[in-house]
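How a chain folds remains the central question behind the approach discussed here. For one protein, we set the task of working out the structure tokens from the amino acid sequence alone. The sequence in question and its structure tokens are set out directly beneath this paragraph.

_____
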Amino acid sequence: MKKFILIFVIILMSACLLQGKGLAYTTVSISEAHEMLLTNNELIVVDVREEVNEYCYGHIPCAINLPWNSGVFDENYDHILPTDAPILLVCRSGNRSGQASAVLSRNGYETVYNMGGGMSGWTYDTVTCDVVENCDYCTRCGATYSVYFPHIASGNGWETEIAIINSSQETPLSGTFKTYNADGELLDDTQTLNLPASGRTELVVGDFFQNPTAIRYIIFAADNDAVYGYLKFYNSPGESYRVAIPAPTSVNQNDIVLSHIALTDGWWTGLTLINTTNESRTLTFTFNNGQSKNLTLSAGVYQAIIMADFLDSLPLADINSAIISNADGIIGLEMFGNSSQLSGILLQDATTQFLYYPHIVNDQSWWTGIVAFNPGLVAGELVVKPYSEDGTLLSPADPATPTEEAWLITPPVAATPIEIGSRERFMGSAAELNLPEGTDWLAIESTVPISGFELFGTTNGLQLAGYTSVGIDGYSGVFPKQEDAGWSGVALVNTTAD
């Protein structure tokens, strides 16, 4: 009995010593946490729930959002949160915040509190993400906004250019480039960047970083949300075979939609995938023909796949699109190529009932291709609306005979809707759609959520570009580069009736 008491006392004393050295955290009740907020102006609240489905619905005013499940907390806490400040961590129930509290405590944070019971029991004031907050203490916290470069190719005949733009006209921007290998390990090649208001920089990975051949992806963590970027891959030293893609600023939260997979007529499709979470993810690819295949990614891992190799024994001719489920926390991009052309788009979980194609060209030098895909289980109808440059809605022409039956659903006749089945793809060029003369842009309206993108190419097969048609309507935007050795064009469309 004496030995038991002695051991208990030693353990208790040790725990007290560890608490004093910042190696333990304190769990507080919801009412105690609320009292701390009222009485301690230095307290930093960190909400580790996911942004879209949890945090934005209602959070403690001025709480910093560093999601635990999608790996944002692990990637950012050390350069965002000061080690000497009191920190209160919250989540839905207290489980994720408890794990995050343990991470901080193990890494030298002196005063860490976990709110037991979580936001599910919080009865005090909350705010949503559409409320502009004035949070003075957040100036103590460093980088809170990330730009992801999900594929880096430097070496073996390839090079990557990346750019960072500060869209703020008033506030300077500071941030840190963090480089990772294919296993998700942080490399000893961290670089910092400072930009003035409206500043911009572009850099070549092979010239800027010390060990570029080991880098597979890069995360740039910035101190304000005015940060944008892009990445460009090209043959080094020439640039005849290249693709430029916007850099994402958030991770996917739902199923990823692959609107188009090119596997025939000399074309290939490749994917790069990164698991930004701190746990393993098993992704399920469900293809348009009903077949499926799984891919497991460990936490932080980067993987590049060629779809023809990944599909293995599955019938390539029958596959043209897919859904990637269990993709919460996954980012990446998709590339299409043949012997002379290369293009690509970001992997997105977004769908819409309005797709916009803001520039349609069909002449001796250029062609335009459009893709719309219904990822859902319910069939729907599409209406293709062609517009002239002055905004006049044109009447669709008589249908043309499709040259590739597997690619094209019958084009519209007058206002006749086009049926699009579950996991069916609508695809064709401007010429195949037989759009009326004077069509400068078009919109597709759908009765079900859809995804899609637009391609431009030269008829000589030497140039190709593409971009998503989902969510491109807005009140502002960034045009990240004026091409030095070529030309740059901008297309603007007023999609409203005003």
